[in-house]
Amino acid sequence: MAILILAAPITWAAIKSPDRYSANAVMNKGVYNQNYNSTARADEFTLRGDGSKPSRAAPKPVPMPDTPLPAPDKFNDPEAVAKASSAPPKEAQSYGSFTLEDLKQQIEQNSKGEFVLQVPEIYYTGGDLEVQRVITGQPIETTAQVLPEKVNNADGHRLRIFRMLVQCCAADARPYSVPVDFGKKAPDFKEMTWVKISGIMSYEKDGDQTIPVIKATSIEETTAPDNTMIY
Q1: How far apart are CA 34 and CA 182, in angstroms?
Q2: CA spacing 20 to 30 A to 143: which of 177, 209, 219, 224?
Q3: pTM score
Q4: Which tens digits make up the pLDDT trace of 24-78?
Q5: Where are the alpha helices (H) located in 17-167, listed in sequence order?
């Protein structure tokens, strides 16, 4: 009887409780109160390629050697083996500076030439002046959830997009968000809808912060990704 008394409310809660954050929960977690100068976890989402994380750019085709490799029976000849060996690796590149070519080597571009970024990657560009200089004016694409913009939006031209980033477990996930400006009245989307956005990267100053702002060129509703939270 005691087990049944306990099992009933637990089962009901498991069935009826939402398995995702509500709009109010995301707002309470600070979706409109962002610190773009933060360096916490910035090394995981920096657009710089320092060798510590794999590039997300599309791999380049490996060119075939100009001269044919020797036949297998010639590999007993040390001289032939030496000639057939692969070329030495390129020297390591310095990332003391950051260029558009560095960005292209690190980040995938879609068929329209837009850099495919995650919201936390866009978020952390707010604290990196060199990356800002390179990516300002560049076309980007990202997928996120949408909320009305409640900051610096008197003309109603903006929406807020965000992704939840897990710190330790889903319960302590926090929203990383950036504003999206449409240059005219922002389209209406139901709160928490998943959208795919294309736009041009820009930045604006707000006090001691530099805020990444996407100047939208298109937005459309999309399906949620397999992993709705970023780990």
Answers
A1: 21
A2: 209
A3: 0.78
A4: 999 999 999 999 999 999 999 999 876 667 788 877 666 665 655 555 444 455 5
A5: 23-28, 42-45, 78-84, 100-106, 119-124, 129-135
Model confidence pLDDT, tens digit, residues 76-131: 555 654 554 444 444 333 335 899 999 999 999 999 999 999 999 999 999 999 99
How far, rounded to the nearest angstrom, does the alpha carbon of residue 14 sit from its chain's CA centroid? Answer: 32
Residue 125, SS3?
helix
Tokens representing residue 222 in the block: 């999309």
Which amino acid appears at position 229 of this protein?
A: M
Distance CA 41, CA 119 (A): 13
Instruction: Give buried/exposed letters for 41-78 (b at 16+ CB in 10 A, else e).
Output: ebeebbbbbeeeeeebbeeeeeeeeeeeeeeeeeeeee
Provide the sign of the torsion angle of the four alpha carbons 106, 109, 113, 115, taken in this order. Answer: negative
Domains of the chain: residue spans and CATH: 22-50+98-230 (2.40.50.140)
